[in-house]
Prior knowledge:
Blueprint: H1 2-7, H2 13-29, H3 39-60, H4 70-96, H5 102-124, H6 129-150, E1 153-160, E2 163-173, E3 176-185, E4 191-197, E5 203-207, E6 212-217, E7 220-225, E8 230-232, E9 238-240, E10 243-255, E11 261-273, E12 280-281, E13 284-288, E14 295-299, E15 304-311, E16 314-321, E17 326-327, E18 332-334
Antiparallel strand pairs: 1-2, 2-3, 3-4, 5-6, 6-7, 7-8, 8-10, 9-10, 10-11, 11-12, 11-13, 13-18, 14-15, 15-16, 16-17
Amino acid sequence: xxxxxxxxxxxxxxxxxxxxxxxxxxxxxxxxxxxxxxxxxxxxxxxxxxxxxxxxxxxxxxxxxxxxxxxxxxxxxxxxxxxxxxxxxxxxxxxxxxxxxxxxxxxxxxxxxxxxxxxxxxxxxxxxxxxxxxxxxxxxxxxxxxxxxxxxxxxxxxxxxxxxxxxxxxxxxxxxxxxxxxxxxxxxxxxxxxxxxxxxxxxxxxxxxxxxxxxxxxxxxxxxxxxxxxxxxxxxxxxxxxxxxxxxxxxxxxxxxxxxxxxxxxxxxxxxxxxxxxxxxxxxxxxxxxxxxxxxxxxxxxxxxxxxxxxxxxxxxxxxxxxxxxxxxxxxxxxxxx
Length: 338
């Protein structure tokens, strides 16, 4: 026990402390849509657990001549595997486009600088741990490299009530990434993926009056979370006067085996203020096997806005909303207003 406590005072603890801080931060403060199922997070935690176990085991057995080499025997094949994995990954990355992967190269130089400084500290103290540190270095480098490249980046955050909302960029095949809208309960590991974000300049909008939180990008509303959560098809809205209009969609019987299609949709238009708040449904809905990009057309003279969709290069009118809402296809229905 005493030797294991002494380990925390030795230079060997420095790389362990670095990994503990990095992956502790990832676990506690960075939300992810897949959380513990995230392969990169699991790989990093596995490297941390392996490195910590081997170094503590080595420290405990350092004065036992018979058992001293057991940690070396355990660490060597693991390090060789990590070295092979890292070298292969770097080779594949730099082979395709070195310029695009410069951040990877720079981060790797930073990691190696940490390794060299730690090794010099060990050598200066004439400690046999220097050799052991070199053997286990590939595990340490792989874990830090994994964190720098694959830990999600938080771009925006806001909160409403007991929930916190994030716009997070997750790398899935460097340098390719997804930008996601994620909701987490405060002081909890419970996070829910709400929607992906396709276009630039995403922002979070908190509507305290309607108790809703939305995310917008350069094209308009993407998703709204609240008592009536909804995503918007196309999400490029129309505008009439000081109001914006979007088309929400509800997917029925989503089927992964059919290219991620829904058997049918219920589509309901929403009217929002110019700041994308105070969104209320219009008394119109239509249902069917729709999968199209909505086209909004404004008639300022009659103070009306219409929704159309393209069918074989022809624009088909779905409904017109104004003082006298009306439908133009069988699937459309004007709802009774309370």
